[in-house]
Amino acid sequence: MTAISHVYNYTVRCPHIKDPAHPTTWQNHIEFNESCEIGLNRITKWHDRSGHRIFEQEGFVVREADGESSYFSMSSGRLKGNGHILVTFKIYMDDFTKDTSVQEIMAHLIKDYQQRLSKLD
Q1: How far apart are CA 1 and CA 9, in angstroms?
Q2: Cα–Cα distance between 35 and 29 in angstroms, integer?
Q3: Along the 121 residues of the chain, how does pLDDT read in single tens digits?
Q4: Confidence at residue 48, expressed as pLDDT on a 0 to 100 scale
Q5: What is the distance between the alpha carbons of residues 33 and 1, in angstroms, rounded to a whole number?
Q6: Measuring CA to CA, how many Å separate 26 from each of 55, 59, 72, 104?
Q7: How big is the chain by its Cα radius of gyration, in Å?
Q8: What ranges in the chain are assigned the alpha helix state H?
Q9: Minimal CA–CA distance to 12: which of 113, 115, 118, 120?
């Protein structure tokens, strides 16, 4: 049995726009970390409250959480050299960023994830 050798967690917080003269975007609010505790915490939470499926993008099923404006997805895979990877995505939305597309954010995160994977091979 091989342990998970890599964990990647992405979090995007769509910000409240406080000053229209100085707009901020979700691209300014992407957090990335490799914490096993965060990944395992997310899996446990999402297992208990799985939300409902919104769409699938490049093999990632994206779900909307019940009771909050957030979206999540996760996946695992095998790496060369008998390693395994776990990746989680969480996107927080707010009422002020209705023009923001969850699909656009996921496409950006998936591209970043795939670039990171290519460096591991």
Answers
A1: 23
A2: 18
A3: 567 889 999 999 887 666 777 777 788 889 999 999 999 888 888 876 678 899 999 999 999 988 788 899 999 998 887 789 999 999 998 777 667 889 999 999 999 999 999 988 6
A4: 67
A5: 25
A6: 20, 23, 15, 10
A7: 15
A8: 36-48, 102-120
A9: 113
